[in-house]
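Write out the bound-state structure for histidyl-adenosine monophosphate.
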Amino acid sequence: MTRIRAPRGTVDVFPEIPGIWSRLEDTVRSVCRKAGYTEIRTPIFEHTELFQRGVGESTDIVEKEMYTFLDKGKRSITLRPEGTAPVVRAYLEHKMWAGPQPVKVYYIGPMFRYERPQLGRLRQHTQFGVEALGSPSPALDAEVISLLISVYQAMGLHGFVVRLNSIGCPECRNRYKESLIEILSKHVDELCADCNRRLTRNPLRVLDCKNEQCKAQAGAVPPIYEHLCEDCSLHFEGVKQCLEALDIAYELDPTIVRGLDYYTKTVFEVIHSGLGAQDALGGGGRYDGLAEELGGKPTPGVGFAAGIERAVQVLQGAADEKTGQFASGIDLFIAALGDEARLEAFRQANDLRKHGVSVDIDYLERSLKSQMKFADKLGARKVAIIGEDELKGNYVILRDMETREQTRVPSGDLVKALL
Ligand code: HAM
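---
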């Protein structure tokens, strides 16, 4: 029989090996909680209309990348391609606008996009993200950027760059789009086929095309942040001021326009050169019109989402260089010889785990030498050895795997010796 493989564009993740994934999730939770964000879990699937209206009909995501199907009740259902529209839907559905504002939430979970798989681009990927709803303050834009950076810094991830832009409100953006169409229409021959289509449907997207000739044209147009209305301009100044107050370095980049239609004013991406062609670690921005688009009253909002696989890819590279600096390992391995000692090891391990010590034991009746090798593979920091003599004397031999020092520890004092 043929073996069944995972679908193209999906990966099996073993979060504990080498521990980066779980550490990243823990870090996200801790950084977000400290800033007053609470966790939200929305469904993996939603009504297709949520994304058609929220993300936008003319976006790549809605046009070609959604996993959409009819359920048995003939409803059009879509596996969520992103988390912002679902969070805003939940905010409106549960009348969260009636409570204290802003409402600040974070999420971690899988997203689905039918994209051409390549390094860093999956059909199921995992995002962590935050959304802050109910305040137009530029301090919140800076706060969400600072949270994303704090997560990377706490993980020891370096070498990323924050790219910042403002695409204004619909009024100033539409004015800018008109002048963009006017300028670029004179150069249609130099634009790729995609950009020729974009020029009428979504001209801002010409600015982030990867084609070299299109890039040259995009580089010659005046940046949008120099053509904002007074309100949007003041807001952008406020964001920059708050980022500077937090010592967050950023680069202004008028080509950051984002691939989702809901953005207003601030947009940003955090990129990393170690990622290759898909160089965005994360991205986000403000979406002051989204709640209204979804049938709610006008509600400002801002947030970001970042790919866990991409962060792990960068961290994994760094860990390999330093010979597994991120290997999680365990606190203790108990090596036991003989049936009675094995039972004692089993009992001790259970007891130590209750005290918060990470412990493993041998389940294959290996020799002492093999158990020591296995402990090494598990990354055990210490090994407790229990044989016949130790059992009789009610002690264990505790070996430090780094210094190779060995000491005798009374069995009852093992927790103390380890904590
Ligand atoms: P996005 O830029 O589409 O934004 O996705 C956020 C991040 O998810 C990307 O920067 C990237 O790291 C990761 N990502 C996206 N697609 C893939 C893929 N196919 N494979 C692997 N990783 C991927 C959003 O989704 C917005 N909801 C962000 C947001 C939140 N804006 C405001 N609030």
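---
The longest helix spans residues 138-154.
Residues 322-326 have pLDDT under 50 and may be disordered.
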